[in-house]
Amino acid sequence: MTGIESVFRKHEGVEPVIHAAGVGHWFGVQESRLQVLFSCDLDLYPGEVAILTGPSGSGKTTLLTLTGALRALEQGSLQVLGRELKNMPPPAQVALRREIGFIFQAHNLIDSLTAADNVRLAMQLKDGYTSADYAQRPVAVLRDLGMEDFARAKPGRLSGGQRQRVAIARALVNEPRIILADEPTAALDKASGKQVLQLLQQLAAERGCTILIVTHDARVIEAANRIVNMVDGRIVTDVDIEQQALVCDFLKRCSVFADSSPSLLADIAQYMRAESFEADSNIIVEGDEGDKFYVLIGGHCDVLHRDEERTERLATLGPGDSFGELALLRQLPRAATVRAVEPVRVLALSKDRFLQAVQADSSLYRHLRKMAAISF
């Protein structure tokens, strides 16, 4: 299996930790109800650090709080740790929240308790700790965040950034399976922000913790392996950084994209989706309306044309070859059938995204014109 094939298969057989399908949400009542989320779909897997980005008011924090069972789900399905949130009874919501670490901009620390005691308080949500754990774990987590010297300080003696680090320690002390964070580094300086990000990455890599962060902080975005962009209550892009890098590298080696700019390749890569076809199955069928452009990444296909009573094989395609562009460019039915000779894997780009790419890149337009042997 090639590198690009394996990265698209890395989640096969793995259940998502967070699975959102068709999630919608409204604020207000009756005639003043305002819809703020529209059919949001999202799957997050163990060990992923995912960033929710987008303009203010785009619905990021609403989606985050729904995921944490802090709001009632109104529309769609939202499964967290295998449990459906729709119509979940309050006791079950409380039990679920105990498995999630929450980090929000409001520190919500108890002023009368020390930093260590604020962290220790969260440990009471989880069974099985010994007296030694209660004594040692809060200090150990504060040490990881550079706050060991302030373990006995109360919030009133701490700066905003220090209070934020205590709040982060409180969210991490129980080693949750999920961390939901809203601008966790906004109040932190460069060094402190780096410490927090390193700790979150470590939790993801070593313990398989799934981390979902709402942020505009470029430092956090650089630490992510998924970037999900929201606009006006909709998820408009969902980019797996590793997949995008491998797709860009693969496309650069395809003749059709040889002269395309890195920015265009990056834009195309984020919209391409992997599809699989079994041997002897048709990927496209002669006479059908064209809806996608394809690049073959694994296996081989035959290009077939039926002429009266005879089917002629026009070509055999292999990894790196592209097909399906003619019907899209000319707004005509498919001119041939493409059939899998063996199990194949392709990258598919929708018609609209394909035509946008062609309009944006004259070199791609020329390559496709030459390949299809057509004039416009």
Question: What descriptive keywords fit this protein?
Answer:
376 residues; 6-stranded mixed sheet; alpha+beta; 35% helix; 2 domains; Jelly Rolls; single chain; Rossmann fold; 4-stranded antiparallel sheet; 13 helices
Write up this protein.
35% of the residues lie in helices and 28% in strands. It is α+β, with helices and mostly antiparallel strands. It folds into two domains: 11-240, Rossmann fold (3-Layer(aba) Sandwich); 253-372, Jelly Rolls, CATH 2.60.120. Helix 4 packs across helix 5 (131-144), helix 9 (241-252) crosses helix 10 (262-271) and helix 10 (262-271) runs antiparallel to helix 12 (351-360). The two termini are 39 Å apart.
Summed up:
35% of the residues lie in helices and 28% in strands. It is an alpha+beta fold.
Q: What's the pLDDT, averaged over the residues?
A: 90
What's the β-strand tally?
Answer: 18
Q: Examine the secondary-structure arrangement and name the CATH architecture of the largest domain.
A: 3-Layer(aba) Sandwich
Number of discrete domains: 2
**What form results from the Cα inertia axes?**
elongated
Helix/strand-derived category reads alpha+beta
What is the CATH topology classification name of the largest domain?
A: Rossmann fold
CATH class category of the largest domain: Alpha Beta
Oligomer: single chain
Tell me the name of the CATH homologous superfamily of the largest domain. P-loop containing nucleotide triphosphate hydrolases
Largest sheet: 6 strands, mixed
Identify the strand order in the major beta sheet: 6-7-8-3-9-10
Q: Count up the helices.
A: 13
- Weakly predicted, low-confidence segments: none
- Give me the Rg, rounded: 25 Å
